[in-house]
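WARN retry 2 of 3 for item q-0093 after timeout on previous attempt; input resubmitted unchanged.
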Amino acid sequence: MTTQTDKPISNNNSVVFQTLGTVSGKQIGVVTLNVEKAINSLNLEMVYAMTAQLKAWREDDDIALVMLDGAGDKGFCAGGDVRAIYHASMMTPGELTQDAVEFFENEYQLDYLLHSFPKPVMVWGDGIVMGGGLGLMAGASHRVLTERSRIAMPEVTIGLYPDVGGSYFLNRMPGSTGLFLGLTAYNMNAGDAKFVNIGNHYLNSDDKEPMLDHLATLSWSSDHDANHQLLSQELNLLEQRVVISIPSSQLAAKQSEIAELMSGSLSEIMERVSHSDFSDTWLARPIKTLLSGSPISWHLIYRQAQLGTGLSLTDVFKFELGLSVNCCAIGDFSEGVRALLIDKDRMPNWRYQSVADVPQDLIEKMTCSPWQMDNHPLKEM
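OK item q-0093 returned
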């Protein structure tokens, strides 16, 4: 960053905050997730630090806009660091743990803060953006994709479901795309992500520094709406000059195939994908991922898709908090995390082996909130 008034605010090692000066006298607040070895996976310390700084910047008239970025060249954020939740859940199997409640409660509050932030928030979605990273990106007003973007919600592989607001944004995607993404953990490129509105701007990965230098020359003001319009306008202009064009969208091209694949009941979907040969098609990897996922997760993801678009964003986060902590207590989450992140044998022993084996009363129990509305941890949201 070559602006002359770069000003670091704080650094707690896992997340770095700084401000960039502009010719207007206003500043750009920059949040850099800084756990490069873990592709900037979110831990609770990072969530607390980001929430506090964003609230301070929200009230600071000198800050015109905020940018979220990730350290290193692998990606913005690969998800949440859920190992602490795993260890707590293993100590008290079958019970709700404070670690799970605290992590998801604060993560969802951070996501909601971004969704409701009055000033422009730009996420630089270069490289890997998955799970909790996608939750941050979905909350931003300006979501920049690059030719290197690889975006997915892979929770089916760890016995969870696409949370962090997925019940809101997946159900607003074209056709059956949201259900398809949830069940298969399909890796979207920038074209795919723009098609489903996960991203709304496209630049090249080498454009970040020139973009920041350019933003420093603009006439930012105290008018939030004007700043939103100015950022959109400038990103659109920069997008017209990219060297590497946005990749084509497989999701857009295959809408009819996705609709056919995802039609009917969950049992019909699983019957279809289990008895078809996709080995020589674009579906080979996503279907393999689906079939290796948790049968409990299949049910939860299908139930999530039935929510439609009737729930408000606040209701979505309240619903997801209950479902997520229940996944940790009585679902497949602990086993999924063990297989993928702890022992790393990638051989999860799911509680049930098929879609038909999963008791319907278990799914009802998991989708039932542990709290009444008057004592819900997110009641003030």
